[in-house]
Design brief:
Length: 159
């Protein structure tokens, strides 16, 4: 049996914050604002995985009103989401993430991002796809006000 889910997230770009995307820290003039480390791509991925099994969203499981998650490393949230999937007898089939941002350049970091996510999820790296696109200067991502990410995830189990 297979099931799929999709996720989407946005965080605002501000000065004076670190930029964490797909579990790695990128050098940039701005970082993403959020209660956790604001890793927009991991948040979209978590929501895709949770969505595949109708398990609500990360805001439900890891509320941003909870001081426990202040400054939280989103990799911990992703590991927990994968644990929830396996606890129910499912395994991650594959995942595909698209980051929408005008800057920085993601191309040199894509494989490191894939390896990092695969390590956190405990899956083969070929199961994890990461892509990035600009929005041609259009919209809030184009104006560098924020970064958006979308993700899909397929999960499977034997029967
Ligand atoms: Mg988020």
């Amino acid at each position: 049996m297979i099931r799929i889910g999709q996720g989407y997230d946005v965080h605002r770009l501000v000065e004076g914050r670190e930029l964490w995307i797909c579990g790695i820290k990128l050098e940039h003039t701005h970082g993403l604002l959020g209660h956790s480390d604001a890793d927009v791509a991991i948040h979209a991925l978590c929501d895709a995985i949770l969505g595949s099994l109708s398990l609500k969203d990360i805001g439900y499981h890891f509320p941003d009103t909870d001081p426990k998650f202040k400054g939280a490393d989103s990799k911990r949230l992703l590991a927990e989401v994968c644990r929830m999937v396996r606890e129910r007898g499912w395994e991650i089939g594959n995942t595909d993430i698209t980051i929408m941002a005008e800057a920085p350049k993601f191309k040199p970091h894509i494989d490191e991002m894939r390896m990092k996510l695969a390590e956190v999820m405990n899956v083969d790296v070929d199961v994890v796809s990461v892509k990035a696109t600009t929005t041609e200067g259009l919209g809030f991502t184009g104006r560098r006000e924020g970064i958006a990410a979308s993700a899909v995830a397929l999960v499977y189990r034997d029967a």
